[in-house]
C-alpha cells in the first residue's frame, strides 16, 4: 500500500503522546493536518465518532484509524499498514 494521501492527527495540546506523534510524523517526512480536540468541538466529536473514545492522539490515515498511541505503536502500525517507507 502506498503512503496515505491524507493524514489527520487529533491532539490535545500539552499531551506528551501527542508531542511524540507530531515528532514522529515530522521526523519521517509525513505530511499531516493537526486537529486540536480541546479548542475545536467539531474535531473532538469527529475523533470520538472515528475511535469511540476521547483519548488523544488519534490518527486518521486515508480512513485507517489508530487511537490512543505512543510513538513506538505508531511506528509499528505504520509498518503493519504497509504505508511504505518513510524518510
Which stretches of 5+ consecutive residues score pLDDT under 50? none
Q: What is the CA-CA span between the terminal residues?
A: 16 Å
Strand arrangement, major sheet: 2-1-3-4
Net shape: globular
The arrangement of helices and strands along the chain is EHEHEEH
CATH top level assignment: Alpha Beta
Describe the structure.
There is one protein chain. The chain is an alpha+beta fold and 87 residues long. It has a single domain, classed as Glutaredoxin (3-Layer(aba) Sandwich). It has helices spanning 16-27, 41-51, 71-81; strands spanning 7-11, 33-36, 58-61, 64-67. It has a four-stranded mixed β-sheet with strand order 2-1-3-4, with helices on both faces. The longest helix has 12 residues, at 16-27. The protein is globular and about 35 Å long. The mean pLDDT is 93.
Amino acid at each position: 500500500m502506498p503512503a496515505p494521501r491524507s493524514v489527520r492527527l487529533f491532539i490535545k495540546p500539552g499531551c506528551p503522546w501527542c508531542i511524540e506523534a507530531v515528532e514522529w510524523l515530522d521526523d519521517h517526512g509525513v505530511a499531516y493536518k493537526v486537529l486540536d480536540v480541546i479548542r475545536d468541538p467539531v474535531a473532538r466529536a469527529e475523533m470520538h465518532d472515528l475511535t469511540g473514545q476521547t483519548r488523544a492522539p488519534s490518527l486518521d490515515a486515508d480512513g485507517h484509524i489508530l487511537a490512543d498511541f505512543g510513538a513506538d505503536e505508531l511506528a509499528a502500525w505504520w509498518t503493519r499498514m504497509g504505508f511504505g517507507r518513510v524518510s
